[in-house]
């Protein structure tokens, strides 16, 4: 079933109110996806007019006085997937003119529905959300919003193919300069591509545009798991066959052929040892190998460089670093003697020593995405006793030089070059759903018709940047491998056209990263790219994985 907006409703309050309550026409259905869009003026002395999220919702707020996001208006977007039925939503604000719109959507993916977020702001009469970059699948729901200062200023000449759902203003009891106008738009896509919402203002005003894309899905259950259910179909019976004449074939083609490839990751409380190769071994719930204990799969061990004061109490604060991760596991299995030994040999094969390579330890915990730790076997000592001939128990140790935990699914974000060197830039968003900084691989393909002599990729949210000063020939590719930098991998951090060019990386050469929540609200990072010459037609792609410290 494609995504569908079941209902939407809105409300607005004047500047003397601290909350706005939206009452829906009817209670939402169980499992629906809810989206809340709120806009407000930024009160003097505040950076964020929204002190808290609505109950049960998570999201991000845009209220920054930066080069791309205006300092007079603010917009916030929250979502609540697989929601229980509700009939109203209340948004708190800091005593400023406030607008809120709530949308109930059905038919979205029931896990990780949010795919892309595009954010742009400015003050000319031409408004835009910026491009989303290539969406993940053809059937996605686009929800866009554009807010501008002064309610008397209208919006029109919309582009992008989205239908306008509402056009509202904050209450007329406020002065026009303290009011704002909000339009909300939506569309269902049918092709994979990049989308954006644009339009024009009747008078140049400060504005912010946001466009979100949500993956389409089904209305079925979030998971379908069965360890003991009967088969869906059973074939049985008796019969006889009589053949007249010769009945043989040595080279006839098969009646039916099945082909293809795929991979199903571990379910909850399962681990895949040894990687996804032929010798990978699944252990845990529902397998032959029962997990007795696991230590080190989460959490962290921190080493401090504090040094004692020679004459005073306490220590001088140093730099803390996360130590390598050690995972201690213990499993058991039973069965006849031959099966016991075969199971032991499969475990030994999966955890055989590796001189210099790591394998991906895939695992899944309830409510979390499929994740991986890059590790290698450290110790596996077999013990043979009389008891082991009935119930075999085996302990093992894994070591991860890189202690970070990564999502099994990689993300990719395209960052367009801003058209000029002025104060307005083209910003896009990149989401890090983990709890630690994510370090991307940055790939910049040079413009087809001009050499690029400099570029700067900026993370407004994380207050970090990557800057290159050198020649990127037309059509050549620059690769900035931040994971190699932070894990000291034996490969070049910066290459241009396949040749190492570390000197092109402008000092201080701090690794570029994407911040997690709460450093970035909702894990949403606002990024922009500048080039020399300005607006060069380069292609900049960031590939990364959500990252957890533990």
Characterization of this structure:
The strands form nine sheets. Strands 16, 17, 18, 23, 24, 25, 26, 27 and 38 form a nine-stranded antiparallel β-sheet that branches. Strands 28-37-30-33-34-35 form a six-stranded antiparallel β-sheet. The radius of gyration is 28 Å and the shape is globular. The protein has helices at residues 337-350, 482-487, and strands at residues 4-13, 19-23, 32-41, 58-62, 73-83, 88-92, 98-106, 114-122, 126-128, 140-149, 155-159, 163-169, 180-188, 198-201, 207-215, 270-273, 281-284, 290-295, 302-303, 307-308, 315-316, 321-322, 325-334, 359-364, 371-379, 391-400, 405-407, 411-415, 428-431, 441-445, 452-459, 464-472, 477-481, 494-496, 499-500, 524-532, 539-544, 547-548. The model is unreliable at 63-71, 219-230 and 240-248 (pLDDT under 50). Helices cover 4% and strands 42% of the residues.
Task: Tell me the layout of helices and strands.
Blueprint: E1 4-13, E2 19-23, E3 32-41, E4 58-62, E5 73-83, E6 88-92, E7 98-106, E8 114-122, E9 126-128, E10 140-149, E11 155-159, E12 163-169, E13 180-188, E14 198-201, E15 207-215, E16 270-273, E17 281-284, E18 290-295, E19 302-303, E20 307-308, E21 315-316, E22 321-322, E23 325-334, H1 337-350, E24 359-364, E25 371-379, E26 391-400, E27 405-407, E28 411-415, E29 428-431, E30 441-445, E31 452-459, E32 464-472, E33 477-481, H2 482-487, E34 494-496, E35 499-500, E36 524-532, E37 539-544, E38 547-548
